[in-house]
Amino acid sequence: xxxxxxxxxxxxxxxxxxxxxxxxxxxxxxxxxxxxxxxxxxxxxxxxxxxxxxxxxxxxxxxxxxxxxxxxxxxxxxxxxxxxxxxxxxxxxxxxxxxxxxxxxxxxxxxxxxxxxxxxxxxxxxxxxxxxxxxxxxxxxxxxxxxxxxxxxxxxxxxxxxxxxxxxxxxxxx
Length: 174
Description:
By secondary structure, the chain is α+β, with helices and mostly antiparallel strands. The chain is built from seven helices and five strands; from the N terminus they run αααααββββαβα. It has a three-stranded mixed beta sheet with strand order 4-3-5, with no helix packed on it. Strand 3 (125-129) and strand 4 (135-138) form a beta hairpin. Helix 2 runs antiparallel to helix 3 (51-61) and helix 3 packs across helix 4. The longest helix is centred in the first third of the chain and has 19 residues, at 2-20. The model is unreliable at 1-30 (pLDDT under 50).
């Protein structure tokens, strides 16, 4: 009888362990492919998945810095030479409007692009070194107190994810 009383508990523990995924002894769980997640968001919104859209998303998913439009275009054309530069620019603009790609203004009028975070992730912020141009990713909630203060005291809505904080990195200060 005591064996029967324990069995449902074991089943719940086993079910919870299975739902949690493999533990450290079996290796980490593979994260969701960011390109497929972005394409799923497009499809869910009723938008087409084109070769150009997939190519732009693939390049942005590599995580190689924060490319501006010219750098992004060059990287896409390296991988997909048949996609025209103007198509790439239009695609980046459209993906930004659709919320699958985000941008940040990084001084001198330049704009850098990266994949938008999927839900429930939060967009990160940026800081740029005014000496070497290095872009540093910052936690998305870093400016929450400033955003709250501006909203309350100045009736102003801040959009901190679209601009980079400017300063000098430790390497350049040395």
